[in-house]
Specification:
With about 50 residues, the protein is α+β, with helices and mostly antiparallel strands. It has one helix at about 40-45, and strands at about 1-5, 10-15, 20-25, 30-35.
């Protein structure tokens, strides 16, 4: 799925083995962040 935020467009996946959301920057596949919630993962993505 692709989601839109006012600052970044991102794609979200869920790692069910680790129970972590993985967020990928839509414009740069190498820009990745993880979090327990989607919101936390997006915040981490925006920090980098």
């Amino acid at each position: 799925m692709t989601f839109y935020n006012t600052e970044v467009q991102y794609r979200v996946t869920l790692d069910t083995d680790l129970n972590l959301f993985i967020v990928f920057d839509k414009k740069d596949r190498n820009h990745v962040a993880t979090g327990v919630t989607i919101e936390q993962a997006v915040q981490e993505l925006q920090k980098n």
